[in-house]
Every structure is written in structure tokens, then in C-alpha cells.
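input
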Amino acid sequence: MVNIQTADIMSDYFSTYSRNVRVVAWILRFIHNISNVNKLRGNLVYEEFKKAENLVFKSMQLRSFQDEKFLAKMQAFKDEEGLLRIRTKLGDSDEKEDFKFPVLLPANDVVVKLIREEHKKAMHAGSYILLARLSEIFWIIKAKKLVKQVLNECVTCKRYKSKHVEVPFAPLSRERVTQTKIFEKLEKRNSSLDVVLNSIQIYLVKKDYPKRLGHKSINTVKKLSQRYKTIAYTDGSYDKSLNKRCACILFILLDGEITSQKVSSGSIASNYDRELITIKETLFLPYELGY
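output
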């Protein structure tokens, strides 16, 4: 009579596996108290919970495994408590008894509740981790299918595995799709300041200038040049520091109008050449002298 009641309780009344086992444990305590003089009081202890769990396992095994051929094929045997266990190849190892001889369990609603609770204990781990944890104690029929069912029904896992909304790609900017020569457009992305300055100097030495500077490149040169307000030209003293290079490059690219002029007449061309030569000497002469 207890086995039938256990199966009914496990199937119908409570949604979690632990609550169902505790209810069976309270029923067993009630049976013990009405049958013995020494009454059990207080909260449930581990031994009572384990006894109730074994009773639940035996009840499921009696209802699901009646075929002797199937049990022989699975190499199942009964332990001293009457539980059906599987004889594995690890019988002579030093592992725990539950790992060497796992408990045989069917694929039913009670086992689904057990897997769901183990899934929560494993912090919503994936199928492989969950199967590994279960195989340390149980040999569940159709375990992969049941684990997949539990994972698909888990609301927490669904929320974290949901597909994010994909924003449609915006068209690339005109500067990125226009065909240009090498070093004609300069950008800066976590590179050193020397890379920006040297790229600009390649154009300056050829009487040319980049068609476009990225905002990061301009900001980098501006920030460093603003720390040094004095612009030094070829007056006999040469400085190898970056501030002079930044100041001169800003003069020719941003502050001055030399690069935006259309050199047509001889006077404008001579002024352009004279000012450009002065800046070139300031930029490159320290390196020629070895400073």
C-alpha cells in the first residue's frame, strides 16, 4: 500500500523532486510512530530522507522494469537494499559505489523532476555537464532525451539563450568606399603618434598633403601640440621632440592655408615653396643630423 501511495504522490501532487521525497519521508515517519513506542520527533534527518528516496526508486523500478531479458541485457542486479543497479566495467576501481554501480531509473515524470532539480543545482549547466553529474549516481534510460527536454523547458536558460535582435548594417561612409592611393587618407586606431606623423611627412616631402585626416588623428596631433604653444623654426636650434613635429604639421594641414591654395602664379608658387621648405627643414633636419 505504501508503494502505491508513493507512486501517486510522486506523480500528481508536488512539482519538485525534493518536496516529493520529503512527503514520502513524513509518511514513513508516521508509519514508524504508529508502529513503535519510541517516537521520532523534530525535523527529518538524512537517514530518513535517504530511506524515502530509495523507496521512491524501488517503486519506479517495480512499475517500469518487469522484463527479465531487458534486465539481463543491462547486467542489472539488486543490491542489499533491493535497488536495481547496473554492473559497469569500473567495478574493481577505487571509486564510490554509486559511481561503479549506478542506480537504474526509467524515463518518466519523476525522473524529469529529478533532472530538473539537478540542473538547478548545477547552476543551469549545459547538457554535457548535466549528463556527467547524473551518471555519477544514476543510469537513466533515454537520459539524453530527458536532459534535452529539461533544458528546453527551463525559463532561465531560454532567456539567456534567446537570439538577440540584429540591427541592420548601415552603409559604409564615403571615405571608406572611395578608391584612393596609399597614405592618402590617414586614420588612427590605437596606434602610436609616430605612425600618424610619419605618414603625413611622407606627403609633405613630396609637396602634397593627405586628402583627409581622421578625427582621431587630428585630435591626437592637436592634444600634443596644445601642450607646447611655441613653434620653433630653423633658427639654428633643432629639437627632436614630437611637439615641434606636431606643431608644424598642424600649421600646414589645419592652421595655415598653404595646402588649400591653388599654386598658379609665380609669386604664389615661390611663397608656397619657401614656406614649405622651411617646414620641411624643421621636420626632417634633426633626423638628418642624427639628433
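quick obs: The two ends are 100 Å apart (CA to CA).
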